[in-house]
Amino acid sequence: MTLASRNAVVTGSTSGIGLAIARALAKEGANVTINGFGKAEDIEKERAAIETEFGVKARYSPADMTKPDQIAGMIAEADKAFGSVDILVNNAGIQFVAPVEEFPVEKWDQIIAINMSAAFHAMRAAVPGMKARGWGRIISTASAHSKVASPFKSAYVTAKHGIAGLTKTVALETATHGVTVNCISPGYVWTPLVEAQIPDTMKARGLTREQVINDVLLEAQPTKQFVTPEEVAAFVVFLCSDAAKQITGANLSIDGGWTAE
Question: Catalytic annotation on 188?
């Protein structure tokens, strides 16, 4: 197990991409702290499954990613429970779509807080321990929208561009301490959240399920295939490996060719 004795915190990991990342890190031997919202029984089921399947320790933190003190507390509690936070994956994120002149101010503030500022607060709390130990991996889930824009997503695109800049800055600050800082930029990933949007889009646009998938969701991805959560998770595991120790400050696409066009 390549990450045995390492301890990870993955935000936004009670489902979807984040859960896949937490499970992949656990499979490689890392103890994990998962975080996010959901039904208590569902979260406990996933937490217990990680321990049972992979023989590691798994914790759950209910920290609210809009609350800086709770984010810092999550890192401190993980450090106390496991002895270190070696891997930080900033994955928590939300979306809202509206023209800029109609964009609710509270939605802007919420998206910036969860999708961008939360990563800063978590890094700020985790970096001192990583520097002191001489090893660390910080990976943030950005998006193809960290490189290109789409209309009606002003807050999301702004936050993801911010993640790319934050990644570069912290990578430079930690480059001589054995700490790497990168972000990955997926295109459309097949998750329950994406699947749940299809019926509404079918109704709103008068399209079939296949038309929504191919002509709306996958229009921008040249491969015409969704990225899977497991593919994103495997990418994260690689970035945590010794083979990736010279990759830092990078914004790495996993988008089916979206940003190549």
Answer: no
Whole-model pTM? 0.95
Let me know if residue 261 belongs to a domain: no
Q: CATH code at 145? A: 3.40.50.720
Q: What is the pLDDT of residues 30-70, one digit of tens each?
A: 999 999 999 999 999 999 999 999 999 999 999 999 999 99
Q: Which of 23, 8, 182 is closest to 84 using CA atoms? A: 8
Q: How far apart are CA 261 and CA 218, in angstroms?
A: 14
Can you give the residue range of the structural domain that contains 155? 7-189+228-254
Q: Which two tokens stand for residue 97?
A: 């779509």
Q: Which of 108, 156, 188, 226 is catalytic?
A: 156
Q: What span, in angstroms and rounded, lies between the C-alpha atoms of 174 and 133? A: 12
Beta carbons of 8 and 32 less than 8 angstroms apart:
yes
3-state secondary structure the chain: CCCCCCEEEECCCCCHHHHHHHHHHHHCCCEEEEECCCCHHHHHHHHHHHHHHHCCCEEEECCCCCCHHHHHHHHHHHHHHHCCCCEEEECCCCCCCCCHHHCCHHHHHHHHHHHHHHHHHHHHHHHHHHHHHCCEEEEEECCHHHCCCCCCCHHHHHHHHHHHHHHHHHHHHHCCCCEEEEEEEECCECCHHHHHHHHHHHHHHCCCHHHHHHHHHCCCCCCCCCECHHHHHHHHHHHHCHHHCCCCCCEEEECCCHHHC
82-141 pLDDT, tens digit each: 999 999 999 999 998 899 999 999 999 999 999 999 999 999 999 999 999 999 999 999
